Amino acid sequence: MPWPAWTYCCWRRPCWPQPAHAAWAARRGKAHMLELSMTCAAAAGIYLAFALLALSQEEHWAASVGTHPAAPSARLRHRWRYAAGTALALAGALCVAGHGIGFGLLLWVLMMGAGIMAVAFTLSWKPHWLRGIAQGAGKCTPR
Question: Which residues cross the membrane (predicted)?
């Protein structure tokens, strides 16, 4: 047997990754599913928060619900604003928990921009779609 070359110590082990075990792959898939679920929940919370902030303004209330139910009281509007702030903070916590502090904060800020745009498009295109959120908030009765 010939003597191995001096580079033998560099290429004894393969450089490519070894195939993953089935159990490890299953755990990694579950982690991706949890991450996706947390991101979707954060997006829904952000949309709900900005919809509540929009409904707490009288102009948007009249555009989405109409003038049949009176505009919400000032106390109820303040509660909606606090609930919106809580939903935004919870969405930020979900983003950070799912993606880490670096990408989670970036994702949260970008999702807030997307949520603002989505609520603005909803108010300009089909404002009556926000009537369901008003019903869930306890002010509007279904027609």
Answer: 36-55, 82-99
* pLDDT greater than 70 at residue 9: no
More confident residue, 91 or 68: 91
Length of the chain: 143
Read off the tokens for 101: 């502090």
Identity at 54, one-letter amino acid code:
A
d(CA 140, CA 97): 35
Average pLDDT, the chain: 83
Cα 86 to Cα 83: distance, rounded to the nearest angstrom: 5
Separation CA 91–CA 84 (nearest Å): 10
Q: Is residue 91 within 8 Å of 83, Cβ to Cβ?
A: no
Look up residue 12 and give its two tokens.
């004894």
Q: Decide if pLDDT at 97 tops 90.
A: yes
